[in-house]
């Protein structure tokens, strides 16, 4: 039994991160960024899914890969309040979200920087993938309950 229904979940690292990677030169996993061998660059963000029959939205804490140039630019403006005016950064979703028939790994995204202290907002490319449809059209409270069951009875989310 659990108290209340959670409306936020977070993945601790990009799917490509592992203990073996941690020991490689040029690799680190921080709270907001991750780099693998100075070649692969990731940023933590939020996918927000409206819940049509609830007062709050469902949020997934996910990781998105960025090109080296976009990652460098994002780091340059990380502490700048004007970062909210940055154009979105293209990226690939680097998180496998549970509960979807088709994988969410490598979906095309746009990462939108937010005000200081707020994680970026991740917009999934508007396709007919169920995650993209739910981001556009919302989901039901029953579907949120399905995610809670998966999250509490499988490992990998927190």
TrEMBL record:
**Pfam families found in the cross-reference section:** DUF2199 (PF09965)
Can you name this protein? DUF2199 domain-containing protein
What organism is listed for this UniProt entry? Lentzea pudingi
């Amino acid at each position: 039994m659990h108290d209340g229904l959670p409306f936020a979940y977070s993945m601790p690292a990009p799917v490509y991160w592992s203990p073996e990677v941690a020991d490689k030169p040029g690799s680190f996993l921080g709270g907001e960024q991750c780099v693998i061998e100075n070649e692969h660059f990731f940023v933590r963000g939020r996918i927000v899914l409206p819940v049509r029959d609830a007062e709050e939205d469902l949020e997934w804490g996910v990781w998105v890969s960025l090109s080296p140039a976009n990652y460098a630019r994002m780091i340059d403006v990380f502490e700048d309040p004007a970062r909210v005016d940055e154009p979105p950064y293209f990226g690939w979703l680097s998180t496998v979200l549970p509960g979807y028939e088709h994988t969410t790994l490598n979906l095309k995204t746009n990462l939108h920087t937010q005000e200081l202290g707020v994680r970026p907002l991740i917009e999934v490319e508007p396709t007919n993938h169920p995650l993209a449809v739910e981001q556009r059209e919302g989901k039901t409270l029953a579907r949120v309950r399905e995610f809670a069951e998966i999250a509490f009875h499988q490992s990998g989310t927190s």
